[in-house]
Amino acid sequence: MKANRILISILLLITLVACAPQATPTAERIVETVEVERVVTQEVVVTQEVVVTEIVEVPAQAGEKKVVEFWMDEPEEPRVNAYEAVAARFMAEHPEIEIRIVPIEEAGQAQRIATAIAANRLPDIVRMGVEVVASFAADGLLDEDAATAVIQSVGEDDFRAGPLSMVVDPSTGKYAAVPYDGWLQAIWYRTDLFDQAGLEAPITWDALNAACDALPGTGNLLYALGLGTNPCENYGHQLFEQFAIAANAWPFDEAGNVTMNTPEMIEALRFYTDLQRCAIPGPQHWLGAR
Predict the structure, then answer these.
(1) Contact of 141 with 147, CB cutoff 8 Å
(2) Residues 280, 223 contacting (CB under 8 angstroms)
(3) Over the stretch 71-126, which tens digit does the pLDDT of each residue have?
(4) Cα separation of 244 and 251, whole Å?
């Protein structure tokens, strides 16, 4: 409904007639302004445009490559070169696929992943430590169907039971990642210097303590060992884990309670931190230990 207000000027001509002797009639002009409301009814037709989007798979054109982005947490040049060589051999056999290797720092891996999530730009494959698999799986970042398919295609018997159990998502029963390499934690020692100092092989805590006290100052040695102490790296955690296991110390009990204050854990922590008395000073990781 639409209302228009129109001002109309009406000219009224009024003739006055008298009964007296006739005189020349006079006309009086009166102008009156009247406000008149006009109601206009208007029919409106609304047309709604509906767009239907259909997703159609278009076959890859000749020469079009599938790009696979691979983040690896070993940015040291020799290791990057080794990965690049493997990728080159793969691409030679599969020219329709392009492998892009992106080296990232292990310490900054979680932050890089968070940034990629915010940008909706996650990589296709990530080399990561097993310690982050559970949290990434809980956040729904890992393609468990793909990981399970890879493991089953290779054959579960080709994997050790321990690593496989570490990548199972307990909420789904599926594999959240594919174990494909391992990092050996060991003590490498100079047998000649141990023999010279009359020390036993460092295979017990007592032998380690003895070497820690005896080796600094022997020959040209300033320190007895390299120890993982950098809080920004997983290396310290990986080393300490071995001593904790040796002491039968675990961060959680079978009921899931935190057990970092058990006598066994305190003993392991005290032993590990005491080794710093003969170790390279400052925050150290695996490269510094070498």
Answers:
(1) no
(2) yes
(3) 998 898 999 999 999 999 999 999 999 999 999 988 788 889 999 999 999 999 99
(4) 9
Beta bridge partners of 119: none
Q: How far apart are CA 229 and CA 240, in angstroms?
A: 10
Output the DSSP codes for 73-88: S--SHHHHHHHHHHHH
- Give me the pLDDT at residue 54, please: 53
- Give yes or no for a contact between 137 and 169, defined as CB atoms under 8 angstroms apart: yes
- The pLDDT assigned to 181 comes to 84
Give the mean model confidence (pLDDT) for residues 154-161. Answer: 94
Domain ranges in the chain with CATH number 3.40.190.10: 66-166, 191-289
- pLDDT at position 258 is 93
Distance CA 66, CA 220 (A): 55
Identify the DSSP state of 256.
S
What's the pTM? 0.60
pLDDT tens, 20-32?
344 444 445 555 5
3-state secondary structure of 4: strand
Homologous superfamily (CATH) for 66-166: Periplasmic binding protein-like II (3.40.190.10)
Within 13 Å and on the Cβ side, how many CA atoms surround 52? Answer: 2
Find, among 288, 284, 283, 247, the residue nearest to 264 by Cα: 247
CATH numeric code, 191-289: 3.40.190.10
